[in-house]
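User: Reviewer 2 asked us to show a designed sequence for the structure in our supplementary figure. I'm pasting the structure tokens here. Could you produce the per-position amino acids so we can include them in the response letter?
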């Protein structure tokens, strides 16, 4: 497996692949890889001749400097996992390589970013939009792979691909969970043992709320119940718990046909901010 740190060397490699008419799958990541990322690599391998995984902790999408500083950086371990998974090449640029100049462009995703992660993390989706656009322009993939766990990210990236005509196919892969239901996340490794034991309550509450909504309970009742559940566990500081329309991302009072709604949650568990969602 090749590891590239410069755009130039990656492009030289990719130009050769394109000459041989190979199809390219891109899996953008910030590293600290887990089985969820590997499921994206597996999907990309199934669909494409070669798979590029980018590993870049993107500073422009962090609005909290401490969060950026503490984000796990584990390139050596990541490279072993990627090689074992059969990834063709890793693109792991430095901040200077990715941002020779501070970008001045601002991407505004309108209503898609006024809620949930966008409301709690101002500027986050501008940073995601810029780095993902740069990666698409550098790699020029036929397909790009994202996880459903970042549901709002999936919406904004999908908007980006449509609005800027990137001409690639977005493939969204299901959330991969630990046996106890906790959604896999690079941030899970920042949980201490006590927090890790509490963390599965996030999915337990989500799943129970989903069952209740499917069973006909009112949205406001279910939200009140779920918020109470989080309040009962002192280690959680809930940011939001919302029942939304999956297209507009706006909160709903009544649920629609199967597949049209999601329940999204963001909560601090100790110092670590975790998100999860289910679609129903
Ligand atoms: O989901 C992530 O890990 C990041 O937001 C992404 C898409 C790699 C952009 O930095």
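Assistant: Here is a per-position design you can include in the supplement:
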């Amino acid at each position: 497996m090749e590891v590239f740190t410069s755009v130039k060397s990656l492009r030289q490699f990719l130009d050769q692949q394109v000459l041989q008419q190979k199809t390219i799958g891109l899996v953008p990541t910030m590293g600290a890889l887990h089985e969820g990322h590997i499921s994206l690599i597996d999907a990309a391998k199934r669909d494409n001749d070669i798979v590029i995984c980018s590993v870049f902790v993107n500073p422009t999408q962090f609005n909290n400097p401490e969060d950026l500083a503490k984000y796990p950086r584990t390139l050596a371990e990541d490279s072993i996992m990627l090689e074992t998974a059969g990834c063709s090449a890793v693109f792991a640029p430095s901040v200077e390589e990715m941002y020779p100049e501070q970008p001045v462009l601002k991407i505004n995703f309108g209503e898609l970013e006024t809620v949930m992660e966008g409301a709690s993390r101002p500027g986050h989706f501008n940073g995601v939009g810029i780095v993902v656009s740069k990666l698409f322009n550098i790699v020029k993939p036929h397909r790009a792979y994202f996880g459903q766990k970042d549901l709002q990210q999936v919406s904004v990236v999908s908007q980006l691909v449509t609005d800027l005509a990137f001409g690639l196919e977005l493939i969204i892969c299901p959330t991969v969970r630990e046996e106890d239901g906790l959604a896999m996340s690079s941030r899970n490794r920042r949980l201490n043992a006590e927090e890790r034991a509490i963390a599965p309550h996030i999915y337990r509450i989500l799943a129970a709320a989903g069952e209740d909504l499917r069973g006909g309970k009112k949205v406001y009742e279910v939200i009140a119940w779920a918020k109470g559940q989080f309040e009962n566990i002192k280690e959680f500081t809930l940011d939001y718990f919302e029942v939304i329309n999956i297209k507009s991302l706006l909160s709903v009072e009544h649920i629609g046909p199967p597949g049209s709604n999601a329940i999204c949650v963001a909560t601090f568990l100790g110092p670590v901010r975790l998100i999860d969602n289910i679609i129903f």
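For the response letter, you might also mention the following. The longest strand covers residues 236-245. The chain has two domains: 2-173, 186-279.
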